[in-house]
Amino acid sequence: AVASATAKGLGLLGYVYPQLGFQAMADHLYDDRLDISPPEVRTWLGDQLEAFIDQTGAAGFAWDHDIYAGPSEKMYAQWRSWMAILKRLRAHKPDIVMDHRQTNHIWGPWYQLAGSYAEPLAGDENPETYGVP
Questions:
Q1: Which of 44, 52, 74, 133 could serve as a FRET partner for 91 with CA atoms 20 to 30 Å apart?
Q2: Which residue in 115, 120, 133, 132 sits closest to 59, CA to CA?
Q3: Would you say the pTM of this structure is higher than 0.90?
């Protein structure tokens, strides 16, 4: 599939849930969700994402769900950490495609700074999944 896409000039994206309970960072889980705010987690996740791009030749990522875990007091720190990860990825691969799904509409123009684009339906499903005639 990768060779076929490359031959056609297409780039493939990795589909990632950043808040999954990655066992390599088990000390930073809240109810099986990863707290990305600690510097060691931010570094680890950035390393994993860069390695994925380098090893697969992926054009970028489609992020799904959200980035939050644990108490609401951690939300700002997690948001800042996420922006740092996205900045790092943009520096590593300047032409990276980052599909931020519905999160783009929640955070608005501040998220555009990370290199997102506005998904027009303000959702993360294809139109045919809504049951609209």
A1: 74
A2: 115
A3: no
**Parallel, antiparallel or unpaired: strands 60-63 and 97-99:** parallel
Nearest to 56 by CA among 16, 112, 116: 16
Residue linked to tokens 């493939």 = 12
Q: What is the 3-state secondary structure (H, E, C) of the chain?
A: CHHHHHHCCCCCEEEECCCECCHHHHHHEECCEECCCCHHHHHHHHHHHHHHHHHHCCCEEEECCCCCCCCHHHHHHHHHHHHHHHHHHHHHCCCCEEECCCHHHHHCHHHHCCCCCCCCCCCCCCHHHHCCC
